[in-house]
Amino acid sequence: MSALRKGKRFLSTQLPGCDPSELQGKLIVLEGADGSGRSTQIEMLNAWLENLGFATANVGLKRSTLVAEDLDSAQQGNILSHTTRGLFYATDFADQLENQIIPALRAGFVVVADRYIYTLMARDIVRGADRDWVKSLYSIALVPDAVFYLRVSPQQLVERNFKKNATLNYWESGMDIGLSRDMFESFIKYQRLIQAEFRRMQVEYGFEVINGNRSTRAIANELRTKIQAILDMPTP
Amino acid sequence: MTDESKYPGKLIAVEGLDGSGKSTQIYLLKRWMEMQNLKVFFTEWNSSVLVKETTKKGKKRQLLTPTTFSLLHATDFADRFERQVLPLLRAGYIVLADRYMYTAFARDIVRGCDPRWVRTLYSFAVVPDITFFFDTPLPIALGRILSGRPKLKYFEAGMDLNLADNETDSFKIFQGRIYEEYKNMVPTEKFVVMNGLLPVEKQQLMVRKFVEQKIDLPSFRWRGKR
After folding, report:
1. What is the H or E stretch that residue A102 is in?
2. Would A95 disulfide with which of A64, A121, B129, B185, CB 3.0-4.6 Å?
3. Structural domain contains residue A70
4. Which stretches of chain B sit within 8 Å of chain A by CB?
5. CB contact under 8 A, B82 and A133
6. Residue B57 is assigned to a structural domain of this protein
């Protein structure tokens, strides 16, 4: 991205008590379904960045001090309606934004986010939330320096999920929205809906689609090349 | 906001400062309706079991910012709205709400949240058929709270806003600003303004009369119809 632009900006709503222009670090987002290879890539990215001398911080979904625990137990009981669930996740996001992402960026860290608002928005929209409502809700997010979307075909995702857990996740199969009573069929349908939403957002938010059907090594190399271009690489 | 006439039920909300007497009034309204055998349900601000622990933790450990404070209350509201208020309105109940989204509009905006963002946050909510605003002058409302319950909590007193160095002074300034926000909403949100200085029973008679004129109460009886 532009070397001229210093600091950061919010999507469209100013957070009280924060001047984003003073944030000097970099915010890099990896998006993708479970089984897209996201976590593996993030681990490798962290090691690579630290090896280059960058301080890194990691954030992700449902990791906030404030709500992660209660959100998890609420989901176990499956007692959340769609809007409530969406807002609970938004609270989790906002807590991490204000208490982890922003302080780390202020200190000049490279923040690597294991998913960001795009997954949250796609999930809400697929569940029938009003598109403009969701956009407004997350308009408090910082615009990342780069967003990479690891796209893997639903069939590949099924294979990888089975290989890893021998089962499909209830939420990642969208079982709560009643696409099908058959989990396998629901998973495929749900992932297609999410991917369609990501295609739409890709145009709007301009993120990079990475072909995730390839080898771990090939993906890692592509990510490094692209991230290198946005980092101010230290000169020896 | 959702069109209010879409559902067979009716929604009545009360708003006002802490100590304005609104809770007493809605309680008496509820009793009156129950004694008429009406299908009535009462819901209270910040009472969802779902986020109770989170709010408690956030407040106790002072983890909340204006934004997370706002979102947590919206989550609480959404939970009660989606699971109780909306289904009951669809089922033809009279729903009574002690504080509604206007409380969030006032408090969150005073805390510095973007007004348009806060309002959009609640755009899924049904607009009440009647919203009573209990207009009690600030010194009177403050007096009722400060004499009856002198120990103010951190967020309740608005201490997170750094308005003053002690709870009582902070509370006074904070409530004053909320009062201003309420006053601004009177014309735009079509509040029914009640004079909070009148005796309790007099106010209640006025509330009942207004409700009776606006809502066909007998049609909400348990027995009789159907």
Report:
1. helix A102-106
2. A64
3. no
4. 50-51, 53-54, 57-58, 63-68, 71-72, 74-75, 78-79, 81-83, 111-114, 116-117, 120-121, 123-124
5. no
6. yes
In a domain, B224, yes or no: no
Alpha carbon distance A67, A85 (integer Å):
12
Asked if residue A90 is part of any domain, the answer here is no
- The pTM for the full model equals 0.92
**Distance of alpha carbon A150 from alpha carbon A32, whole angstroms:** 5
Contact A82 B82 (CB under 8 A): yes
Within-domain flag for B206? yes
Would B18 be classed as within a structural domain?
A: yes
Longest dimension (CA), chain B: 60
Interface test with B, best of A79, A87, A176 (most B CBs within 10 A): A87
A190: CATH: 3.40.50.300
The CATH number of whichever domain residue B206 belongs to comes to: 3.40.50.300
Distance separating alpha carbons of residues B80 and B57, to the nearest angstrom? 20
> Bridge-partner residues for B67, per DSSP?
none
Give the number of domains in chain B.
1
Half-sphere exposure of B89 (CA within 13 A, CB side): 24
Length of chain A: 236
Summarised one tens digit per residue, pLDDT across range B20-50 is: 999 999 999 999 999 999 999 999 999 888 8
Q: Domains in chain A: how many in total? A: 1
What is the tens place of the pLDDT at every residue in A115-165? 999 999 999 999 999 999 999 999 999 999 999 999 999 889 988 888 888
Structure tokens at A175: 């079982």
DSSP letter string, A179-219:
S-SSHHHHHHHHHHHHHHHHHHHHHHH-PEEEETTS-HHHH
For tokens 């990475």, the residue is A210
Q: Is B194 helix (H, G, I), strand (E, B) or coil?
A: strand
Residue B124 identity (one-letter amino acid): F
Instruction: Report the DSSP beta bridge partners of residue B2.
Output: B126
CB–CB of B138/B20 below 8 Å?
no
Closest CA to A195 of A29, A62, A63, A36: A36
Domain limits at B68?
A: 14-139+172-215
ipTM score here?
Answer: 0.90
Residue closest to B125 by CA, chosen among B181, B87, B67, B77: B77
